[in-house]
Amino acid sequence: MRILRMKRGGFAVGFLVLASVLPGLCPAPASAMEAARITRITHRALEPRRASASLMPGRLGPSDVGVGQGAGEEFRVYWAPGPAGSLPGTVVTFEFRQAFQSLIRTLFIQYPFAVKGERCALFEVAEPAIRQGGRVTAWRVRVSRGGRRLAERTSESWEP
Predict the structure, then answer these.
(1) What does the alpha-carbon distance between residue 137 and residue 142 come to, in Å, rounded to a whole number?
(2) Is the dihedral of CA 126, 127, 132, 133 positive or negative?
């Protein structure tokens, strides 16, 4: 009887060791295999919108002609899901700080469909936001799904 108990105990310990190793050996479900990556990010300052004297000469004063009201900024985030694609509900988030504000502002794009191949998410910080808070000084981009981060990239000046 004592030998039988030892075998049961040994079996239980062996089973626990096997149970802890097995998940690493089994393939993960497709949703867990998402390995999105951010391939590149481009930035450009948008040209300020200028009033045209030729369109409404009677309504514009001399100081209004050719004077921009501040330009916006455009960020293009190129990203790709893993080889199997991305499930619906993937979100690309663009967080940024501005020169004259300490707040972190957030823009996002949610993809309600499955994504395959490289995508470009376009984020524009509009003229009114630039006039109020100044130029973008730091940014962070994330690709996530269901609250789980799949990829992230930050500017050199980003501080958490």
Answers:
(1) 17
(2) positive
At position 37, the amino acid (one-letter code) is: R
Q: Please count the residues of the chain.
A: 160
pLDDT digits (tens, 9 = 90+) for 83-141: 889 999 999 999 999 999 989 999 999 999 999 999 999 999 999 999 999 999 999 99
**What sign does the CA torsion over 106, 109, 114, 117 have?**
negative
Tokens of 72: 């916006």
Cβ atoms of 73 and 135 within 8 Å: the answer is yes
- Give the count of alpha carbons within 13 A of 31, CB side only: 9
Cβ-in-10-Å burial (0-12, 13-18, 19+) of 123 comes to buried
Q: What is the pTM of this model?
A: 0.67
Degrees, nearest 5: CA angle 38-115-146:
75
Q: Which residue has the tokens 């993937």?
A: 90
